[in-house]
Amino acid sequence: MNVAIIGGGAAGMMAAITAANNGHKVNLFEKNEKLGKKIYITGKGRCNVTNSSDIDVLFKNIVTNEKFMYSAFYTLTNDTFISMLNEWGLETKNERGNRVFPASDKSVDVIKCLEKQLKNTGVNVHLNTEIKDIVVEDNVAKGIVFVDGTKEFFDKIIVATGGFSYKTTGSTGDGYKFAKKYGHKVTDILPALVPLNIKEEFYKELQGLSLKNVEVTFFRGNKEIYKDFGEMLFTHFGVSGPLILSGSSYVSKFLANHEEIRLILDLKPALSKETLDDRIVRDFSTMLNKDFRNSLNELLPKKLIPVIIERTGISPYKKVNEITKNERMLLVNTIKEFEMTAISTRDFNEAIITQGGINVKEINPGTMESKLINNLYFIGEVLDVDALTGGYNLQVAWSTGYLCAINL
């Protein structure tokens, strides 16, 4: 069978290798000058290829449409994919949170491994080749249309064009355009796994401050939307880091509607309020004649102290021995419930992935074929499926690409 794959990212390359291994003639079309451009920058250039946790953990980390991924994740499991990479000559290693990286810490080695398989299986790779349209006749996909208007006909067409995130890698939403033209619904496209802009001005004072072992709870009104423990970072516009990026995927749709989201930061989640108060009493007992502003160095990062003191309303020049129990409790509450307001996400250029995409109700979850157009398939980030950080989004790409290719 003659197969065209549009897009040479993770999903497209996996589909191409698998289809070629199954005896199909495969042409892979990529508009960039090289394959896997987004893979190069994932994991800060190290490429977090997947996650080795139990499969139920994979499902729990899918934010949107986890049930749609049932067949794909069970057909190409994370364990099978890791074994596949190892067989192909790429050594891998596990890190914190069961994140899987190439042993070399170089994303380029992942690309080289996949390129070698594309070559070994006889896939025809066409770089710098943009596809303008798909040929559809009587609800059957028949071929592709190049930018110059010429056409080429194929038995099966697979769209693996990615989303909108990291537009510098060529993610310009071509797949959404194809899908809409031929009757598919595309849900709202939003940046996800993305830093947040906050309303309060104190972030300017805290810029560059990284916090570890903190807990952040996201509230929409009084309703808790997301809560997690880990690391975050203050920036020149607001907040970022793993905790914030994960939370953004749960609140981006509300922020897109100009709602505000409250973030409650617990700077000492390991301590109850009572325990924290005991700790402060002990610290204070050794510095009774010091100013309040000079009494928190053992408890908090230096940059954070003036902001916390201002929040308490206690004079920074008040002597520690003059601080009342009520004022101490104000300090405890400020440390345990440091509030800020997210007003918007950063844009797609800073988003790791895209939330939204082709409505999965119109895609066969067992084959990835369109339910509207025969012989047309959609895989990877172009679908309305997204997950948290940790290798889960790439596993979505590998699994949907593989499942599609074995069902051609």
Structural class: alpha+beta
List the total number of helices.
Answer: 13
* Rounded Rg: 25 Å
What's the CATH topology label of the largest domain? FAD/NAD(P)-binding domain
Shape descriptor reads elongated
**How many domains, as an integer?**
2
Identify the CATH class of the largest domain: Alpha Beta
> Hey, roughly how much beta strand do the residues contain?
15-25%
Give the name of the CATH architecture of the largest domain.
3-Layer(bba) Sandwich
In quaternary terms, these chains amount to single chain
Largest sheet: 6 strands, antiparallel, barrel
As a percent range, the share of helical residues equals 25-40%
The span between the termini is: 8 Å
Name of the CATH homologous superfamily of the largest domain: FAD/NAD(P)-binding domain
Unreliable stretches: none
Strand segment tally:
21
How do you describe this structure in short?
The protein is of the alpha+beta class and 408 residues long. It has two domains: 2-190 and 352-406, FAD/NAD(P)-binding domain (3-Layer(bba) Sandwich), CATH 3.50.50; 195-346, Helicase, Ruva Protein, domain 3 (Orthogonal Bundle), CATH 1.10.8.50. The chain has 13 helices and 21 strands.
Task: Give a written overview of the molecule.
This protein is of the alpha+beta class. The chain has two domains: 2-190 and 352-406, FAD/NAD(P)-binding domain, CATH 3.50.50.60; 195-346, Helicase, Ruva Protein, domain 3 (Orthogonal Bundle), CATH 1.10.8. It has helices at residues 10-21, 37-41, 55-60, 70-75, 78-87, 107-120, 174-181, 203-206, 242-256, 273-285, 305-312, 325-336, 392-406; strands spanning 2-6, 25-29, 50-51, 62-64, 92-95, 99-102, 124-126, 131-137, 140-146, 151-153, 156-159, 190-192, 196-198, 210-220, 223-234, 238-240, 261-266, 338-345, 353-355, 376-378, 386-387. The strands form six sheets. A six-stranded antiparallel barrel has the order 13-16-15-14-17-18. It has a five-stranded parallel beta sheet with strand order 7-2-1-11-20, covered by helices on one side. It has a three-stranded antiparallel beta sheet with strand order 3-6-5. α11 crosses α12 (325-336). It is elongated, with a radius of gyration of 25 Å. The model has no long low-confidence stretch (mean pLDDT 95).
